Amino acid sequence: MVAKKSKKSQKNKQLRIGIIGAGMYVAAAHIPALRRFHTVKVVSACRKHPERLEKFCKAYNVPRGYTDYRKMLEKEKLDGVIIASPNYLHYEHTMACLKKGIPVLLEKPMTIKSTEAFEIHEYAQRNNIPVVIGYNRHYWANFCYAKKMIEEQQLGTIQYITVRWLADIEWCLARGEPPESFSQKAFFEVGGEPNFRGDPKLAGGGMFIDGGSNMLDAVCWLTELRPVEVFAMMENRGFATDCDTMLGIRFENDALCSCTVMGAAKTFTGHQIYVHGTKGSVYVDDYTIFYQLNGQKEVQVVDLPVDSCPTANFIRVLQGREKIHCSTKDGLRACIAVESAYKSSQEGRPIKIEKWV
């Protein structure tokens, strides 16, 4: 889906962007990407904390700030909205934009309930309103190369997938002070309101709904395999929500996947995915890609194109220059898989995935 074009090209039109959830991640990822487009202006931003909102607007030259997203949507004439609010508000904020016909870039996870994700997906499709989901690996050159290899059947039939993500987000899970590298972007002051991610009611979960959903999205997108059964074990490690997860997945073609996610790792952090097929294997991580076909030497792919990002794709969709690279269907698939994993851990049994898109 691309934004509808008028007779006059939209490429040079000044785009008016609003932000709901004007916090640390917007400052770190979305603002730098938006600044690369000379025809884009962030005209308004919303967050509930008035002092941090004021600092955000001052730091990034945003002319108007709102503590109520409803007022922003009523008063501003917006071409698109970036939503990076706490996870439990994604559905409410996205539907409010869609009902006004405003395209959305929605940060992951799409929602904390698959029923809500399905409603967003159906509404956006039915009304032809662009919604981009913020899973980054759809835009990374090494992952795109791996996907092309799989699509071209260079690996043969996929039989086994190994996923590993070790991260140190203990400060999030503990709802403590952010590291110095994040404090300024979060406009955090000692004793201030903590990050939402350590609260299961606000985030919908812990490390798995955050990092784990990235990995499940990547696996489903890379392989286009349909998961039919999951079994998960999770440990909180003293936090209010999950820190570590061990997940097994069976796919419709009887391929298997083992997924390890750790939330308070101090060493060997990063993520890796191996995809093994009947004709060969491919490995991708944060930066690199290797593959080995049967009977041949291992090859590292170099001279890859420059990575893109969800923000750039969103703007180009609005300009009519690109199609959506991470859609509501991708977001919904990740929601279904993540929800099934949490249910498996809570009930201590394998969970069959009956519905898929």
Describe this structure in words.
The chain has helices at residues 24-34, 50-59, 69-75, 90-98, 114-127, 141-151, 170-173, 180-186, 200-203, 207-223, 310-318, 328-347, and strands spanning 15-20, 40-46, 64-66, 80-83, 104-106, 131-133, 158-166, 227-235, 244-251, 256-262, 270-277, 280-285, 289-293, 299-300, 351-352. With 357 residues, the protein is of the alpha/beta class. The chain folds into 2 domains: 15-136, NAD(P)-binding Rossmann-like Domain (Rossmann fold, 3-Layer(aba) Sandwich), CATH 3.40.50; 141-306 and 327-352, Dihydrodipicolinate Reductase, domain 2 (2-Layer Sandwich), CATH 3.30.360.10. It has a 9-stranded mixed beta sheet. A 6-stranded parallel beta sheet has the order 3-2-1-4-5-6, sandwiched between helices. Helix 1 crosses helix 8 (180-186), helix 4 runs parallel beside helix 5 and helix 10 crosses helix 12. The longest helix is centred in the last third of the chain and has 20 residues, at 328-347.
Widest sheet, order of strands: 14-13-12-11-7-10-9-8-15
Shape: globular
Largest sheet: 9 strands, mixed
CATH class of the largest domain: Alpha Beta
Number of domains: 2
**Structural classification:** alpha/beta
Number of helices: 12
Spans of 5+ residues with little confidence (pLDDT < 50)?
A: none
Total count of strands: 15
